[in-house]
Design goal:
The structure holds two protein chains of two kinds. Chain A contains no helices and eleven strands. By secondary structure, chain B is mainly beta. In chain B, a hairpin with a 6-residue loop joins strand 9 and strand 10. Chain B is globular. The chains are: A mainly beta, B mainly beta. Chains A and B meet through strand 5 and strand 10 of A and strand 5, strand 9 and strand 10 of B.
Chain lengths: 115, 107
């Protein structure tokens, strides 16, 4: 059974940092392209970042609004991905979801950016 | 960015009805569209990928069709467990983009 579990969310002040983690199991992680999505309080969904597999040189892509602030990474030995979020803004407040090929999603983790 | 115009925003149906949701892309997305169901407090669940391929576990009353810019998603014989919000996602080009969602309610 495929499992996806995010962690690391919380309340942070604007300008601060947070690192999300996503632990997975039940599939061949090393060849999978992994994603972060988010859902804003008004329910709008947004793709955040993608990291490809080792065979694709772990290439990464980001939505424009997080470029230069967020970094997606992976550790194939732990079947996990991460999202380092720096210089957080109030508009980053959302539920963050980790996904495998955009198909299997975790339960999500809440990130609230507020002073 | 590709814009996904999803309609209607909300839908009221009786049990056993057939309902249809549409998504129109701002450009050809080459059938790279997926449909998701989301229930309150839960993560989106992918039901259909590549326009019409049912994901494992998706009941056969769900279906998808379309090409080019225009796509549709249908539920035949609506059941109570189908009450949820539904979203389309284009994954032809980055940034992947979602429709605004359709909330399905019971009449």
């Amino acid at each position: 059974e495929v499992q996806v579990l995010e962690s690391g969310g919380g309340l942070v002040q604007p300008g601060n940092s947070l690192k999300l983690s996503c632990a997975t199991s039940g599939f061949t992680f090393s060849t999978a392209w992994m994603y972060w999505y988010r859902q804003f309080p008004e329910k709008r969904l947004e793709w955040v970042a993608r990291i490809k597999a080792k065979s694709n040189n772990y290439a990464t892509d980001y939505t424009e609004s997080v470029k230069g602030r967020f970094t997606i990474s992976r550790d194939d030995s732990k079947s996990s991905i991460y999202l380092q979020m720096n210089n957080l803004k109030e508009e980053d407040t959302a539920i963050y979801y980790c996904a495998i090929y955009s198909a299997h999603w975790g339960q999500g983790v809440m990130v609230t950016v507020s002073s | 960015d590709i814009q996904m115009t999803q309609s209607p925003p909300s839908l009221s149906a009786s049990l056993g009805d057939k309902v249809t949701i549409t998504c129109q892309a701002s450009q050809n997305i080459n059938k790279y569209i997926a449909w998701y169901q989301q229930k309150p407090g839960k993560a989106p669940r992918q039901l259909i990928r590549y326009t019409s391929t049912l994901v494992s576990g998706t009941p056969s009353r769900f279906s998808g069709s379309g090409s080019g810019r225009d796509y549709s998603f249908s539920i035949s014989n609506v059941e109570s467990e189908d009450i949820a919000s539904y979203y389309c996602l284009q994954y032809d080009n980055l940034p992947y983009t979602f429709g605004a969602g359709t909330k399905l309610e019971l009449k």
